[in-house]
Design brief:
It is found in: Cytoplasm. It comes from Microbacterium bandirmense. The RecF protein is involved in DNA metabolism; it is required for DNA replication and normal SOS inducibility. RecF binds preferentially to single-stranded, linear DNA. It also seems to bind ATP. The chain is of the alpha/beta class. The chain folds into two domains: about 190 residues, P-loop containing nucleotide triphosphate hydrolases (Rossmann fold, 3-Layer(aba) Sandwich), CATH 3.40.50; about 190 residues, Up-down Bundle (Glutathione S-transferase Yfyf (Class Pi), Chain A, domain 2). Helices cover about 40% and strands about 25% of the residues. It has ten helices and 15 strands. The strands form three sheets. Strands 2-1-4-5-6-7 form a six-stranded antiparallel beta sheet, covered by helices on one side. The relative contact order is 0.16.
Length: about 400
């Protein structure tokens, strides 16, 4: 899959924007704050229904506007698909596919993107929510219907939390909480599906992660990933990380039992303490947790390897072909050896989009079609070298 054209209306700093992209490497160059990352963010949203920078959609709508539009023409082999999403400050987003109204959660069926960004370091060094977001955005691309499952789970979770807070305020205990059982059933059904999908994802990522880490770091430090599950009785959000992947057949029973055991504590705190929203993806190298033990270089290698492993997984499973790779201001963060290794590993994908403040930071193997961004203005300029090369 490649993105042939991107059109934006009232998105971030763009009143309007049109960007033509090409097969192979594309380089977007501009000083910090000019809007190049906004272009990357728009493409990523079509694939993941979320941003890598903010947790809600409103900040992506231009100041003074009520909605933003992202529109892209995607090429799947010889077939072209026009996808569009309207991001609303208030109310639900709207989508169109080839001009026909559609649900936004249908968009990831057509758009497949893997983003590399400086924020990726938070996946390995940040709090559990960063790792959950990484896993869930990849799940949505791998299994598009999971977008609906995750949204339904969040809705049930909010309603259950509201009931817990109300019970706490009214001093309700015991039989007075019988209505909570209905929400427990919904939470268990949706949450168990999410946990099962996450466990399968971790298992399927393990091989590609091992290969990608060795390619990036030039060493085998035995990278591992596994889920610490709150349904086992602990609370990974509070640092209780007894990771164990051998629970596949009993998740639903474990979930229900843990909810019963934590009910009194949940009422006291007015908060749901069990479920995939409390889980953590534990990452290790050299049999030690990356968070707190890995060096800066090792942490970057794990973060990059996670993205490369994601790309390989989508590449091998998707009938749409390669995912689009977006390397957003990554090269400035890396030493010369990792720059060279990452460029070599990604250059073979159907389409690569690279953003950079300094053009010289981009390795030669990715340096071909160059677009300059300045104050929200896009200047599509081919270098003389690239033009000469096209005539061959």
């Amino acid at each position: 899959m490649i993105v042939e054209h991107l059109n934006l209306v009232d998105f971030r700093n763009y009143a309007t924007a049109d960007l033509t992209l090409h097969r192979g490497p594309n380089v977007l160059v501009g000083s910090n704050g000019q809007g190049k990352t906004n272009l990357a963010e728009a493409i990523v949203f079509l694939a993941t229904l979320g941003s890598h920078r903010v947790s809600s959609d409103a900040p992506m709508v231009r100041d003074g506007s009520e909605f933003a539009v992202i529109r892209a023409r995607l090429a799947h082999g010889t077939r072209s698909v026009l996808v569009e999403v309207q991001l609303n400050r208030q109310g639900s987003n709207k989508a169109r596919i080839n001009g026909s109204p559609s649900k936004p959660n249908e968009l990831p069926r057509y758009a497949h993107v893997v983003l590399f960004a400086p924020e990726d370091l938070q996946i390995v060094r940040g709090d559990p929510s960063s790792r959950r977001r990484f896993a869930d955005q990849l799940l949505i691309q791998r299994i598009p219907r999971m977008a609906g499952v995750l949204a339904d789970y969040d809705r049930v979770l909010r309603q259950r939390n509201a009931l817990l807070k109300s019970a706490r305020a009214r001093g309700v205990r015991g039989e007075g909480l019988s209505t909570l059982d209905v929400w427990d059933d919904k939470l268990v059904a949706l949450g168990s599906e999410i946990i099962h999908a996450r466990l399968r994802l971790a298992s399927d990522l393990q091989g590609p992660l091992t290969d990608a880490y060795a390619a990036i770091a030039g060493a085998d430090h035995r990278p591992q990933l596994e889920w610490a599950l709150s349904v086992r009785g602990g609370d990974p959000e509070d640092g209780e990380t007894d990771a164990d992947a051998d629970v596949r057949g009993e998740i639903e029973d474990l979930f229900r039992t843990a909810l019963q055991q934590k009910r009194a504590k949940e009422v006291d705190r007015g908060l749901t303490l069990v479920g995939p929203h409390r889980d953590d993806l534990i990452l290790r190298v050299r049999d030690l947790p990356v968070k707190g033990y890995a060096s800066h270089g090792e942490s970057w290698s794990v973060a990059l390897a996670l993205r490369l492993a994601s790309a390989e997984l989508l590449r091998n499973e998707s009938p749409a072909g390669d995912p689009v790779l977006i390397l957003d201001d990554v090269f400035a963060e890396l030493d010369a050896d990792r720059r060279r290794r990452l460029a070599s590993l990604t250059s073979g994908y159907e389409q690569v989009i690279v953003t950079a403040a300094v053009e010289a930071d981009i390795p030669e193997v990715l340096h071909r079609h160059v677009v300059h961004i300045s104050a929200g203005t896009i200047s599509d300029e081919r270098t003389e070298t690239a033009k000469d090369g096209d005539d061959d």
